[in-house]
Sequence to fold (407 residues):
Amino acid sequence: MLFSQSLGVVALATLTTALPERKTLAEREVGKLPALGWNGWNQGQCNAASEKVALDTAKTFIRLGLKDAGYQYVNIDDCWSTKQRDSKGNLVPDPNKWPRGIKPVVDEIHNMGLKFGLYGDRGVKTCAGYPGSQGHEKQDAQLLASWGVDYWKYDNCYTECYTGNAADIQTCPDDKGPSSRPGYELMRDMLRNTGRDILYSLCNWGWDEVWTWGASVGHMWRMSVDNWGKWEDVVRIANQAAPILKYTQPGRYNDLDMMILANGALTPAEERTHFAIWAITKSPIILGTDMTKINSDEVKLITNKGLLAINQDPLSKPAVPFTPPGTPTKGNGEIYPYWSGPLSSGTVVAIVASKGNLDTKLSLSQVPGLKDQDYSWTEMLTGAKGRGRTVQAKLEKHDIAVFRIDN
Fold:
């Protein structure tokens, strides 16, 4: 193993692999479809950044059927390292959290048929105050590759910002500081040059219009500030994503942030809408959930074969809002009520009860790309099937119906 507990030293493996062809990360095999996985931050923040939590979660993936449903990534967030680099400048796994180091844990998770992700930051420190990668990009990328890491979430805290005339090494205010793009491009190049395909997740909170350049840098990019797990956050993020979903394409995805279920803040109807909107907009689905607290209905939701098939459809065209003629427009604080998008075979149509209880019919001829003719349809959450020129949704407040329309 690369981490010696007795010496407290992390050694970089000798890299003998030839440099790969210089393509963007999104053009390589990893990340061709939206990532499906889990992130530990909401389970216990720094306390979840441990070998035990990583392995327990991997085993839970298998026990609950998430692996069989397509979930792959077990991702550890901030606080996994010590507060200081070693004498050679390497990141050091906290020996209290990782008594065997990182690589044996990665190997064990790989042997389960799953993948392992870690967290870093392009600034001098991570958001929780641990060593960032600024000035160590090449070294850190090589270390990740030597451990066999599959996924790298790269945050944006403690970068150089300017308040007046003084440099302020803190989290950048939204309207100040240089662009984050060069720092993300630098780490892209360092990851690429290791010769290992590592999924690269840009976490700059939607700054610098990242959706306009993220596709040339990474596989996925956060398009907003954090999802705090409330209904208002689901509405905010979905509505903010709507006009920029056009930048999503195969291997390049707007990241609507972690999927937060089982925290008590959302009703079952709101959880269904949260999951379904993330799925149909082709967001990566990274569960920000304490997997020890998730209930059977939530497991059924996150392993829904129909919704996951829509999310993983190889066409990778997101559903976007549309307004059927004669229907009211979205009000303030409401999620867009109608969404549709093409699939490699068929069309997805979603109806959200954004105001209150809803009982409505939708003529399929009002859906972009569909004609005035009969279609076969399946509702993804109930399994109901039918054929005709309309679909009907009878929903409680904040619930959703998702129809797969087949020609």
Confidence is low (pLDDT under 50) at residues 1-22, 162-169. The longest helix spans residues 51-63.
